[in-house]
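Translate structure to sequence.
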């Protein structure tokens, strides 16, 4: 009788534990789904804040160094902002100058482009495909009724189409032109101004922002919140520093390789390759397509365009498969599969900006899952640490 009662109590406790774990997991999923919905519908507010935090993490070491020189909090932040935006302005001026140089040289490459097109059209498969496409276009452009009329009345003259008349209002043309020119620029300029404002505020009041996060998390969790904030800041700062170093070396090697191949404007292509590598998975395609097309337009043969393509493929394969997994995994604590899944998630959520911010945001999610028990599944899914201990892994393999 006592044994039966003990078994009943054990079974009841196991059921209660299972229900508690199930409720905790359901609560965690609901919290995650609600957070994703908030981030999606209020993305116009969160995207500038996330970009400002990213810039603040990147510029914070400079501000801390200047504050150690006893320049003061406000002066150190202002000097850091001036230096940062001066560097951005210099890079932008170099890019604009190189782009103008490329645009002025494009008409001289027209003959080579026509020759390449003729060579491609000379291939039997491509030429037959072009003839099929032209035939389909002619068939679609001539309706069945018109073809029937042409067969029955071959001598009939086509009806003259009426000439469309457009009334142009000449009043306010200057204002309309100015509005149409400035309208596409107002959105990015407004976003850049908001990012600059948030970055300045964060650099000036870094301790105050941290204390407000601690207060929002609760005073009874002050030690855990402090550890989580320091861990996230340290990981994101290390990721940014190593990403900047890796992309700088990548762009330099691309510029050197293109210079040896003989492509002009190698500074532009090296800077473009280094900058676009901050966009995971897609940036290398964008940065590599422009010099490849220019090589096809400049050089008469196919050897040097093939060398340009090979240069990008080899360097990207080495960096993406041999360098980045070791450096980013050791310094951010995220797994390659987790970064891929997070990149898809943030791209769906925030678009191209989400793709740029996917790695820093994933690092923050890993830290959140490490210190918040309700979100521990994030740490299991995204972290670099093995999900099973060695004894559990051995037992699982024996069972398998």
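Result:
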């Amino acid at each position: 009788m006592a044994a039966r009662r003990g078994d009943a109590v054990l079974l009841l406790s196991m059921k209660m534990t299972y229900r508690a774990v199930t409720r905790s997991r359901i609560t965690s999923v609901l919290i995650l789904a609600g957070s994703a919905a908030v981030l999606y519908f209020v993305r116009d507010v969160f995207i500038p804040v996330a970009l400002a935090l990213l810039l603040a993490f990147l510029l914070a070491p400079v501000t801390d160094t200047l504050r150690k020189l006893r320049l003061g909090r406000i002066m150190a932040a202002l000097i850091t902002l001036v230096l940062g935006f001066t560097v951005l302005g210099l890079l932008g001026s170099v890019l604009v100058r190189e782009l103008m140089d490329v645009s002025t040289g494009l008409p001289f490459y027209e003959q080579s482009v026509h020759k390449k097109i003729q060579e491609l059209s000379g291939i039997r498969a491509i030429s037959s495909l072009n003839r099929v496409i032209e035939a389909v276009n002619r068939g679609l452009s001539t309706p069945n009724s018109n073809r029937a009329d042409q067969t029955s009345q071959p001598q009939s003259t086509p009806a003259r189409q009426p000439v469309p008349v457009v009334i142009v209002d000449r009043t306010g043309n200057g204002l309309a032109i100015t509005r149409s020119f400035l309208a596409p620029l107002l959105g990015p300029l407004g976003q850049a101004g908001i990012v600059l404002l948030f970055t300045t505020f964060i650099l000036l009041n870094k301790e105050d922002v941290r204390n407000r996060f601690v207060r929002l998390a609760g005073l009874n969790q002050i030690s855990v919140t402090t550890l989580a904030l320091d861990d996230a800041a340290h990981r994101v700062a290390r990721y940014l520093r190593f990403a900047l170093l890796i992309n700088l070396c990548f762009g330099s090697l691309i510029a050197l390789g293109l210079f040896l191949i003989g492509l002009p404007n190698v500074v532009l292509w090296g800077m473009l390759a280094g900058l676009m590598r901050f966009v995971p998975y897609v940036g290398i395609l964008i940065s590599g397509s422009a010099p490849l097309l220019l090589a096809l337009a400049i050089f008469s043969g196919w050897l040097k365009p093939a060398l340009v393509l090979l240069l990008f493929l080899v360097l990207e394969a080495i960096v993406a498969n041999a360098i980045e997994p070791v450096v980013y995994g050791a310094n951010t604590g995220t797994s390659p599969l987790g970064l891929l899944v997070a990149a898809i998630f943030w791209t769906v959520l925030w678009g191209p900006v989400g793709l740029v911010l996917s790695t820093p945001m994933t690092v923050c999610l890993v830290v959140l899952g490490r210190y918040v028990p309700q979100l521990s599944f994030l740490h299991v899914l995204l972290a670099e640490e093995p999900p099973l201990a060695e004894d559990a892994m051995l037992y699982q393999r024996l069972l398998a």
